[in-house]
Protein 1
Amino acid sequence: MALTFPNLSRSYDETGKRVRFCGYDGMFEIQFFVEIEALEMRMTHPARTEASYLAAFDDARTEITEAAKAIYSRGGRAPFVLTAGSF
């Protein structure tokens, strides 16, 4: 099966300084994270708030999910972490 992202939910992980989201490979949920540094690079004026990180994630969702598919296709174990160089 191909990795899909039917669930648009995402959440901010304050402790890990990252945004969490999930993909699905068939019935299996695959956990992903995007480091906030990667999101800040895309923000014109980083506000460094939960709302701004989630908005930056939403703005880059297509690029993020494409990068997640590429990382997942290489194999490895979840959770997968996307960094500034990932997308």
Protein 2
Amino acid sequence: MTEVLTAKPPATGGSTPADDRPAARSRRGWITALFLLPALVLLGALVVYPIGWTVVRSLFGAQGFTHFVGLSNYGSVFSDHQTLTAIKNNAIWVVVAPTIATGLGLIFAVMTERIRFATAFKLVIFMPMAISMLAAGIIFRLVYDQDPTKGVANAVAVGIHDTFSSASHYPGAHPRPINHQLTGPAAGPFTTPPLAVSSRPVNLPLVGATPDDLKGASQAAGPRSCPGGHLCGTVWMDFKPGGGTPNAIDPGEKGLSGLRVNLLSGTKVIAHATTSKDGTYTLPAPATSGPVRVQLAASNFTAPYAGVNWLGPTLVTWSIIGSYIWMWTGFAMVLIAAGLAGIPRELMEAARVDGANEWQVFRRITVPALAPVLGVVLVTLMINVLKVFDLVYIIAPGASQQSANVLALQLYLSSFGGGNNQGIGSALGLLLLVLVLPAMYVNIRRFRKENAR
């Protein structure tokens, strides 16, 4: 007997599955909408409504909604010098800060795979992210302080400078205004009138040296005869507490040691000497028979190096960018390190077996494999720097705040910081939104491509 197996025909009647009923689909839709409603309300209240209100407000003047000005606020934005400076600075921020932060993050991420204390290294680099922008601004305002005893940056700059260039002995010292023996500009050099060589000493009195400059100084030497054919004399601090005779060496007045004394023939230095502890000097006999002049070199009186004006108009933007990179390099490093962990190690080992050195492995394999991660980090930081406000507002002093101006700061200043024109501020806010949108679009497209893989 042969059994014939036949498929049972599908039922033509009866009800559809419960999940396919229109009522069930409608119920699922309502449940989904109910769960999404709180998020939609928040999105509308915190994003959609402020954007709409800003668009409307940008069409009105400083007086409020009673004074319609149309698009004139936008014309004012692009013709205002402060706003143009802010746009220029924002362009510098967008190009420089994300690029350097991403590059350093890449270098540090690769380093963490090759050092033994990788965890501690990551912690140190990422730690600035735990500090708020306000706190970081206060920290770097102190770091960039002009006084080398307070500002770390200038302390380092002064230390390096003084290592290769010694400071002057008596900064600020100068002759008395009534002294016709020495003349010259305020910071030197100071020169005598033409002199004939004789045994009479050429004494050079100065004032203006500080007590700290005179610590350990000896009593200035009194009158003496010069060796035959030589020029000699004493350089001293012509000041005695409680009185004294001007242009005369009194008891208690100190000799100025270590000063360079030049002998001039015309404008040419033909000899020089250095003053001893009691302020005396002896210049060799000049080869010329004509008159000569004695000069105290300007290097004796130059003010000590005070460091770099980090927060001046020229460097303030770059200094603030440096503080931003200090904060956000850790963020870039962590994301790039996560991407680096996902690269198959077989690719790198195969390249090394084929004879590639470490630089070639890094350039031909590591960087291309990390390209999606590097793109996300770079675009994210670009969006972030377009909105930078706190660091600029805190670090830049009032005198150079305009030189460091950015769009977010200009928006605040126009609306609330003295401008009191929320129409201009709203126009600036929309300009900032328009500048951020392309970067957001690139990020969204990248995320969609990643999800589609």
Protein 3
Amino acid sequence: MNAATASRRHRPSTVRGALDLSVTLVTDAGLCGLRGVTAVVSEAVDGGVRVVQLRDKAAGHDDLLRQLEALATAIDGRAALLVNDRVEVAAAARERGLPVHGVHLGQGDTAASVARELLGDDAVIGLTANSREHLAALRRMPRRDVDYLGVGVIRPTSTKPDHPPALGIEGFARFAAEAELPCVAIGGITMADAAALRDAGAAGVAVVSAICAAPSPRDAAAEFATAWGAR
């Protein structure tokens, strides 16, 4: 497939204004095991995952690009595709015409303002935040720079051993009430937490091991989607 064909086939769609954050899958190659990340993501999107965030701290630039191309094919427009941290990879993927919708940034990563300039106004930019200091910094930033916040951890989790103190659902609720952006809860979340977090003001939940390590990623994703939508 030549570059022109790839650009027509994989041109990023504009999802920034209508992003469904309800169930986000953050990938973990180790937890996906022999099945591989692409197979797990395909099943999870079948089950109801609406945002896929490719996170692979060990992968190089070219490897991440190959992973994004495989994920874009597997997702086939059914979910938004984000890159964790690596703004330059997201920019390169978008230049190739791959449907990569944006990035999720940590506090120590590329500044959101830089990411916005590199990726453009239609890109989705998420930012990890979990303290009053983070909220104060956000209020000093242009509103255009960040679209949503990843807030956690809710409970201690082995997938992020250096995580800050757990917020719990009540702590999340207090944070979300002060935030001026949609907040996605992350960190140690189980299906039993989904409805409570929604009621606490979450725009969605982000999960890693509960889907990546599940015997059936499709079933696990479907259960999260059902739990999120239950009234």
